[in-house]
Design goal:
GO molecular function: endonuclease activity
Protein name: Endonuclease/exonuclease/phosphatase family protein
Strand order of the largest sheet: 3-4-2-1-11-10
Strand content: 15-25%
Radius of gyration: 22 Å
Keywords: Endonuclease, Hydrolase, Membrane, Nuclease, Transmembrane, Transmembrane helix
Structural class: alpha+beta
Pfam family, one: Exo_endo_phos
Number of strands: 11
Order of helices and strands: HHHHEHEHEEEEEHEHEEEH
Length: about 350
Amino acid sequence: MRQAIAVIAGILLALLCIASLLPLVETDIWWIRYLDFPRMQFAAGIVLVWIVMVALGGIGHGAARWLTVLAIAALAYHGWRLWPYQPMAAKMDPGTATCAPEERLSVLVANVQRSNRQAEEVIALARAQDPDLFFVLETNGWWDEALQALDADYAHHLQDIPSDATYYGMHVFSRHPFTSSEMRFPFGADTPLFDGMLDHPAGQVRVFGLHPRPPHYFQPSTLRDATMLQAAIEARDEPRPTLLAGDFNAASWERTARRTLRLGELIDPRAGRGPMVSFDANSWWMKWPLDQILWQRGLAMADFTVLPGIGSDHYPVRADLCLAQAPGQRIVPANEGDPAEAEATLEKARAMRDAAFDG
């Protein structure tokens, strides 16, 4: 019996290691890209199953040795991906910025979950946090009506509720006006990308609000990846400081998320502070950081926090920023292959758009 359980543990260990290493492949296949999310869970599972296998006597000296080598390789890959989001890693922003109220920009992101009906929790959150910018994601007609309670609190309000992609409605509330704003649908995507120039009293800020589809059930990650990369490239080319916020449906350590960070010269507040998970609020073990607020130099962090639940499967996240240059900020330089890989993704997204249009 012990030997049988040890063999089962060995097979499970091999599967966990293979699943851990498959995302090394540069691909947009949905199930491979989905394996990027549970890295912390995979790493913990590999350690636990290896201990069980060894404690039960192993499955033969040679097989156990090779499985151990494979486990070490998988754990090393997880460690490399997860390291920037551990408390001992270097911070990208020291988080010590101070500024006068007229130079501060507070940003709140809340994916409310379309089926959630605890609107009073969301309204209370908005009023308690009192952000300058409030992105509300996964809204529909019901939420549109419920969120009208905030119209009196915010002078500026934009929204889009796609008729087909009903899980991707987006509401943007702002205390400051936008000199320009639009809901874009890049590459023919059916999920909106908010693009606005915020006219803040301390200076203009380019703002992107993102909520692309995740890789999911025969749905490749192409449009998600292309949307993130397009926003990053536009941020890089924008002379004014730029902010990206929303539910990226990509964990912070995922390949495209890191490439977005590098190409956009963006700062991730989670770096050096821990993963600060924002999903799944309803699970005790399947958790990873999906909801992001990233910014460029010219914006400096006073605080970043993950807030308590609001009845959704996401926790809200908030960043308090100063419109100022700050010493000690660090960006991750682009890799040599980043521009070419990004262009390949964008070209594939354009081809998908053209094929859908021709069809």
